[in-house]
């Protein structure tokens, strides 16, 4: 990976975040203190910060419309290969996570055709994971 991104976001319980990101999503844990934890999300550095007052940031916030579906704004995630995406969808479902958007295919038959799913972490941060059958079409115009 050429340039991994970094994002830091609030959670209201580090132990719950550790279980969700470490066990449910399968992210290896990096450095941590009693107020934050680094995780490796498919090669990208995500950092959960204990900030109880800022949690549930996406609840009641904006929704964007994409291919006829309402999606939470803000959200973040990773574009995966199709096998990793399917495995993550199965792992998330097996752990009882509620999907905001069930795993589905958007833009069917178009250059941007993609598998996608949305769900929130226990602190209310919205996540989207995508996959393209042809990764070269990631930025293809319609």
From TrEMBL:
Gene3D superfamilies tied to this protein: 2,3-Dihydroxybiphenyl 1,2-Dioxygenase, domain 1
All copies of domain VOC, residue ranges: 3-132
Domain of life: Bacteria
InterPro entries: Glyas_Bleomycin-R_OHBP_Dase, Glyas_Fos-R_dOase_dom, VOC_core
Transmembrane spans: none
Protein name: Glyoxalase
